[in-house]
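Help! Submission page says 'invalid entity' but I think these are all valid:
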Amino acid sequence: MIWLDTIVQGILLGGLYALFAAGLSLVFGIMRLVNLAHGDLIVMGAYLILTIVSVLGINPFLAALIAMPIMFALGWLLQRVVLNRVLGPDILPPLLVTFGLSIVLQNALLEGFSADSQRIGAGLLETASWNLGPVTVGIMPVLTFASAILVIVGLNQLFYRTSLGRAFRATSDDPVTASLMGIKPAGVFAMATGIAMIVVTIAALYLGMRANFDPTIGPARLIYAFEAVIIGGLGSLWGTLAGGIIIGVAQTLGAAVSPEWQILAGHVAFLVVLLIKPRGLFPRAYD
Amino acid sequence: MTLLETQNLTAHYGDFQALFGVDIRLEAGQTIAIIGANGAGKTTLMRSIAGVLRNAPGMIRYDGTAIGALPADEVMAMGVSMVPEGRKLFPSLSVEENLLVGTYGRKIVGHWSLDTVYRLFPILREKRHVPGTALSGGQQQMVAIGRALMSNPRVLLCDEISLGLAPVVIRDIYAALPEIQSSGASVIVVEQDIGQAMKVASTVYCMMEGRVTLSGAPGTLSRGAIHAAYFGAHA
Amino acid sequence: MYRVQTRTKASQIAGLLALGLVIVGIILPAFASRTMIQDLFFILSMLTLAQFWNLLAGYGGLVSVGQQAFVGLGAYAMFGGVILLGWDPVPALILSGLVAVVIAVPTAFFTFRLQGAYFAIGTWVVAEVVRLSLATWKTLGGGTGTSLPRTASDFWGTAQVAALFDVRAAAARDIVTYWLALTLAVATIGGIYALLRSRRGLALAALRDNFDAAKSVGVDATRMKWLVFLVAAFGTGIAGGLIYLQKSRISPDAAFSVTDWTAYVIFIVVIGGIGTIEGPIIGVLVFWLLQSTLADFGSWYLMILGGLGIVVMLFAPRGLWGFVSDRTGVQLFPIRRRLIVTKGE
């Protein structure tokens, strides 16, 4: 039953990728902004949690709770001060500014934390597992997956049950008309990026607890997140989870064949989906 | 009391000047109409008042405050609400959500609420969970009006609300006007339909090529004068 | 009467100046130091990469962050030609261009399906796929890479150059690769300039300025995108081959480095001025100055470069050249057609 085990591990890994992707998807959905620094922001979040853990000597989950408002504020400021200035019909300025930010962040982390790989210690959780008959699942991957589902449910509630969510969707549809309704698009965008950074913090927590990380791994996380978003279909959070699972399963299957195939298999799965369903598995009816 | 007025209002789109010193005045409780052909500058005037286009502060005064330079969301928060041309419902929101967006970030104080809007346009209650853009043109216009009313505005700007609608539908929509007026809102309607404008407004402004070419109470304006002001023809 | 003119006085002076510079560039190895030749090689090859990225993003609207795919492919194709086919490295550079184009076709096929900004990450994914695939090819060194065989180190022209200038073989190799880089850079700038001044270039500019309007007057947007993408892949591939001929050692991580072959290139174009031919030239000089003064600071250098790119994009989105050109009206490579009123009956 080695295959079943591989697939289950892949599905659980997909939860991590969905967490990487949710923030990217949120920001793109509301303001059509693709943040090329998304992966580096996740890595930055991991270093922030690590720092809080080592300075205060507390549990990483508690540290993530402290990191959340800090990350929210950073995201809010980033949008307010920098990104709002470059939004517009021309895609070049936001891409180049976020690309620049990615380079700056990576090197700032290198300078501050060195190139050594780090890990957020989670004690017994790191190795604990459940034996479910044919498969054994680690508690950490299960927690990751459950968190991904909680994040998606939470974001959907926010989108469809609150007035802020209505403002998000209205602004996404038509910012000018939204401003006629008293909505400040610049403020809505700043809120959205702030909330995306809270999701980024959750992703960072699991990134840092599950494996070693160093300042250079951000771009690869951006790519996984992006692939999950495109496979799922733009604007669908559950689709993003499905996309993450597809990448995760492809990677674990690839790794089962040969370790050097792991990452490649995920990319190939993405290209295959792009070939068969260019608009993703669960495309939105309109754009 | 003058609630809203423009003084020598000019507006530009890049190098193109769309308004050349427009003066209009809306008294509290009054309904005025702006008429004119396509391209006369009516929508530009509405967008300037609503804050979509920014102007020099003193060009537009509302309730004694210079609002010409304020952004749309602040103008709206002060009590000037707009039904935009082409209705502009939010496609990813249901009818009810479209209405609720009109109250974003503030408490409703006054006559208008979901309930009173539904009483004004009963069909919307039936369709409240349907996406706004799935409705007929007339029903979409009702949503757009209701959405603008939800904030209980003191000034309601209605831009081309009868455009593209059947006469019977237009009549239904204008039938709502008396209740809107009695709720305390002063109204500016932009119309291409001169007859409709004459019926509802106490003052009519006719625009051509970015200027007000004629104004006055409907009874005082002759057909010939309106014709000349509207088309620029020499009657 | 009207006539259409694209030449300006500045462009005529610039043309003469450029001709002079090229001549100086050709005879330079006779008296320049080896370090200077190496620096110039670096500047010229980065300039070539920057011109092609500028053609893609500044004129074609194709913001690619995956051009390292073609640098690496070109480099590996040259190595493949030498190691697998026993070719001389210099003619193998043609393989660099051809292999890049061959891979660019499926790349375009996939990435053109992605809208706007997602195209950027799509190109990055393809670059990763190519890098990871090549890392599994053991004959070409796998993940650790390989060196050019000793037999290939006396490639075309090195013996003659060594005799002509009375220098060692290593210096002669630097001179030959420098001349090749000079030729490639001049051909690139000349070729792009000619392309932009042609009817196709006019169509390209029309698409960039107003996509819908250009389409409505019959410009085939998809064909233009393909043309630009394949041309850029070809040139980037040759540049990649040449860069690794000079380095003579290759590994997947270096040849497909997003920092070295895309980030630097993007900053060169953005800082210099995107959408102009002059921009990358200015940008590469600024870049080289920064690198030679700050390179010792490692990550601080990259932070400054990234920060500078962000600041330019925010406050002077048309870059240093745009800043100069806006204030002086000078255009060295005018591609805009100007209507001149001439007296007539």
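Support: the input was valid. A stray whitespace character was the problem, and the output above is from the cleaned input. The longest strand of chain A covers residues 129-132.
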